UniProtKB/TrEMBL annotation:
GO terms for cellular component: plasma membrane. The chain crosses the membrane at residues 20-38, 58-80, 107-132, 138-162, 174-198, 252-271. One of its GO terms (molecular function) is ABC-type transporter activity. This is ABC-2 type transport system permease protein. Keywords: Membrane, Transmembrane, Transmembrane helix. It holds the Pfam family ABC2_membrane_2.
C-alpha cells in the first residue's frame, strides 16, 4: 500500500505541474494526424473499415516507437535522481516508506501519467478516425492502444531504473537518451557491421536467423512483434525477410522481450538504490 501512496502523490504532482495536460495534447495531435494519414491511405487502396484501422495502426506504430520512449524517459529519468538532488528523497523516506516502495510508487505514478495521456490522446484519435475514415475496428484499435500503454510502461521502468542508479539527473538523462541513440542508430549499425563481418556482404539473398533475432531484441522491435501477435500482421513476414521466423522474432515473443526490458533495468535500479547512501 505504501507504493500506492507514493504513486498517488506522484500523479497529483504531475497534474498540478500540467505535465499531464501537455502530454495529453501531444498524443491527441499525434493520433488525429495519424487518423488523417490513414484516411489518405484508405482512399489510395480503397480498403474497408477493418483494413482502415490497420492502416491507422501502421501509420501510428513507427512514430509511436519514437514518441513514446522519449516521453516515458523524460517522465521517468528524474523520478529518483531528481528527488535525491533536491533533498526531498530523505523526507520521503522519513515517512513509513521503504526504498522499494518509493521506486515502485514512482513507476506506477509516472506510468499513470503516460497511460492517461495515451488513452485520452488515442480516444481523440478514434474520433478523428471516425471523422476521416468513417468506420473502424474498435477491437483492433483498443488492442493497439493498450499495447502502446504497455510500451510506455516498459520505458518508464527503464527511465526509473536508470534514475535509481545515479545521484544526478544529468547523468540519468545522459543514460536515458544515450540508450535511445543506441536503439535508434547504434543497434542497426552494429547489426550491419556484424552481418558484413560474418557473411562477407551486406547484400545477402536472405537474412540469417541470428541477424533477424538480433534486430528483434530492442524494445521498439518487441513492441512491433507484440502488435503483430495481437493483430496478426507480422511486419517481418510481410516484408518478405524470412518465411520461418526464429523464436526470438516470433510475434508472441515480443511480450517476453517487453517483460525483460521492463524488469531487468528496474530490478538493477532497485538493487543499486537499496545499497547506496543518500
Amino acid at each position: 500500500m505504501s507504493a500506492i501512496v507514493v504513486a498517488k502523490k506522484d500523479f497529483r504532482d504531475a497534474v498540478r505541474s500540467r505535465v499531464l495536460i501537455g502530454l495529453t495534447v501531444l498524443f491527441s495531435l499525434f493520433t488525429v494526424g495519424g487518423a488523417f494519414l490513414a484516411s489518405r491511405l484508405s482512399e489510395l487502396f480503397e480498403e474497408g473499415g477493418a483494413s482502415s484501422t490497420i492502416d491507422l495502426i501502421l501509420a501510428l506504430q513507427t512514430p509511436a516507437s519514437f514518441l513514446v520512449p522519449v516521453i516515458a524517459l523524460v517522465v521517468g529519468y528524474g523520478a529518483i535522481a531528481g528527488e535525491r538532488e533536491s533533498g526531498s528523497l530523505k523526507f520521503l523516506l522519513g515517512l513509513p516508506h521503504r526504498r522499494r516502495d518509493v521506486v515502485l510508487g514512482k513507476v506506477l505514478g509516472r506510468t499513470g501519467v503516460v497511460a492517461v495521456s495515451i488513452l485520452v490522446g488515442f480516444a481523440v484519435g478514434l474520433v478523428g478516425l471516425f471523422a476521416f475514415v468513417g468506420s473502424v475496428s474498435i477491437v483492433d484499435y483498443v488492442a493497439f492502444t493498450l499495447l502502446t500503454v504497455l510500451f510506455g510502461f516498459v520505458y518508464v521502468c527503464i527511465g526509473v531504473g536508470l534514475s535509481s542508479m545515479t545521484r544526478s539527473t544529468t547523468k540519468a538523462a545522459i543514460g536515458a537518451f544515450g540508450l535511445i541513440v543506441v536503439f535508434w542508430i547504434g543497434w542497426g549499425v552494429v547489426g550491419q557491421l556484424l552481418l558484413f563481418a560474418i557473411e562477407g556482404t551486406l547484400f545477402v539473398e536472405s537474412f540469417p536467423d541470428w541477424y533477424i533475432s538480433y534486430l528483434s531484441l530492442p524494445p521498439d522491435a518487441a513492441y512491433g512483434s507484440a502488435i503483430g501477435a495481437v493483430l496478426g500482421e507480422n511486419q517481418l513476414s510481410m516484408a518478405g525477410i524470412v518465411e520461418n521466423l526464429p523464436v526470438v522474432a516470433q510475434p508472441w515473443f515480443g511480450f517476453v522481450l517487453l517483460t525483460i526490458w521492463a524488469l531487468v533495468p528496474l530490478g538493477l535500479g532497485l538493487w543499486r538504490f537499496d545499497r547506496v547512501d543518500l
